[in-house]
Write a structure and sequence with these properties.
By secondary structure, the chain is α/β, with parallel strands linked by helices. The protein is built from nine helices and eight strands. The protein has one domain: Rossmann fold (3-Layer(aba) Sandwich). The strands form two sheets. A five-stranded parallel sheet has the order 2-6-1-7-8. A three-stranded antiparallel sheet has the order 3-4-5. Strand 4 and strand 5 form a beta hairpin. Bound molecules: cytidine-5'-monophosphate (C5P). This is Cytidylate kinase.
Length: 224
Amino acid sequence: MSKIIIAIDGYSSCGKSTTAKAVAARMGYAYIDTGAMYRAVSLYFHQNSVSHTDPKAIATALENLHVSFNFNEKTGRNETCLNGLNVEDEIRKMYISNMVSEVSTIVEVRRAMVAQQQRMGRKRGVVMDGRDIGTKVFPDAEVKVFMTADTFIRAKRRQVELLEKGELVNLDDIVRNLEKRDHIDSTRSESPLTQAADAILLDTSFMMIDEQVEWVVELADRHI
Ligand code: C5P
């Protein structure tokens, strides 16, 4: 059976990652969370006080940082690693969410991440979620989904996720963060968040994760 690329793009907190992860498991494909890569870069910039306006410092940082993924057999979780260290929990915190979209506008950062993502998916058989997968990273992806959902519903979901990880965040702060990120992501000059002409729109406002997974798997089955 031929292997394809499934690109899942869309607004923040629509359930892209959860859906993509489950679709990958169902299909025996690799799952690549490109948002985690931008989050890890943001963490590195934060830890090393890299100025967003200093091209030399950015170039040096990009030479010195390495983002990878590791499947932890013990926990059964996919972990994002920065220079070999597990940063999975750290990159999900609000202070990273509050800086990641700015970091993601930096052209050199995008070029480095897109090149790595293209290498990771070159053999196909991947489900990749992000903002520019169907438009920039893999414009030739066989399946393209563009996810959206009501902002309040997205914020509520994010609040529950953060609470499960022990971080209590005010709903208004989450709404503000989602709206700000969506705005920055959609208006940046380099590969902005936009629905690819051949992507299929999926509004997840009133869908359960299982339904979303089923919907994507059925769509993918028609392309294999
Ligand atoms: O998917 P997640 O919400 O974790 O992504 C965090 C941020 O990373 C997004 O708000 C966006 O600014 C950036 N991002 C991006 N391009 C991608 C994936 C994520 O610019 N392909």
